């Protein structure tokens, strides 16, 4: 059965990459979360999509220029009523001790190198005993390989935006167990052949009904969606009846 990953949490209804969005994704019945990490000036891993805090919070400036104690003062729900703090990755991993969710941690180190990010993320995953519930992804494929070399027991997956030729061959060459492509770049045949080669396929960000139907029909490994409730409703139609 295709797994449903809530993209930045249940972000179609709750402020993206906040604990509320993660709690609500779990409550809704998602199988997993997708979240983004950046690094503060004092080396804390924080869960936020952009390099700058401007779009999603009450503040301005680069994440890398904030101390953790200062970035925590910002409101990550500037359009909503309830104040939300930017979560630390630790906060999410601690909460994951209370549930069975999977989690895709996307390292946002494509634009800024964030020296030491891979080591920090992996140390936390290992310390929290979550090596078999986490997938590390990134658009920075050097980083993916670095993660594999640091901890081959943690699944890695390259993110990409354009069509790759025989993506399973590429994934195998960098020892990744999955691929995270933009959903619109994938033909049915590429999805099927990649999975036949034992490489997981987790397209992002799949919100449209027709696209969700197609991926469930193909029994694609996972979908990454902003709306886990809609995805769950559609998936029901493909679940085998006794
Ligand atoms: O991980 C899938 C997806 O989140 C990648 O793009 O920009 O939403 O982080 P973006
Ligand atoms: Ca992401």
From TrEMBL:
<feature type="domain" description="GP-PDE">
    <location>
        <begin position="2"/>
        <end position="235"/>
    </location>
</feature>
<dbReference type="Pfam" id="PF03009">
    <property type="entry name" value="GDPD"/>
</dbReference>
<dbReference type="InterPro" id="IPR030395">
    <property type="entry name" value="GP_PDE_dom"/>
</dbReference>
<dbReference type="GO" id="GO:0008081">
    <property type="term" value="F:phosphoric diester hydrolase activity"/>
</dbReference>
<dbReference type="InterPro" id="IPR017946">
    <property type="entry name" value="PLC-like_Pdiesterase_TIM-brl"/>
</dbReference>
<protein>
    <submittedName>
        <fullName>Glycerophosphodiester phosphodiesterase</fullName>
    </submittedName>
</protein>
<dbReference type="GO" id="GO:0006629">
    <property type="term" value="P:lipid metabolic process"/>
</dbReference>
């Amino acid at each position: 059965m295709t797994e449903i990953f809530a993209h930045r949490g249940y972000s179609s209804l709750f402020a993206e990459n906040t604990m509320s969005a993660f709690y609500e994704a779990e409550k809704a019945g998602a199988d997993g979360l997708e979240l983004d990490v950046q690094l503060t000036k004092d080396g804390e891993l924080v869960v936020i999509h952009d390099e700058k805090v401007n779009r999603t919070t009450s503040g301005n400036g680069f994440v890398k220029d904030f101390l953790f104690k200062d970035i925590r003062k910002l409101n990550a729900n500037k359009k909503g009523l309830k104040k939300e703090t930017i979560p630390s990755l630790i906060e999410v991993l601690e909460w994951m001790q209370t549930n069975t969710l999977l989690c895709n941690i996307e390292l946002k180190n494509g634009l800024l190198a964030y020296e030491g990010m891979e080591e920090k993320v992996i140390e936390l995953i290992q310390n929290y005993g979550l090596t078999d519930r986490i997938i590390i992804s990134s658009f920075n494929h050097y980083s993916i390989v670095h993660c594999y070399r640091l901890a081959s027991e943690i699944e890695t997956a390259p993110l990409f935006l354009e069509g790759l030729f025989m993506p399973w061959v590429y994934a195998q060459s960098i020892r990744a167990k999955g691929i995270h492509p933009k959903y619109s770049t994938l033909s049915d045949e590429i999805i099927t052949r990649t999975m036949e080669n034992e490489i997981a396929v987790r397209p992002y960000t799949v919100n449209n009904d027709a696209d969700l139907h197609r991926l469930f029909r193909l029994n694609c490994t996972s979908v990454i969606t902003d709306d886990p409730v809609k995805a769950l409703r559609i998936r029901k139609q493909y679940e085998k009846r006794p």
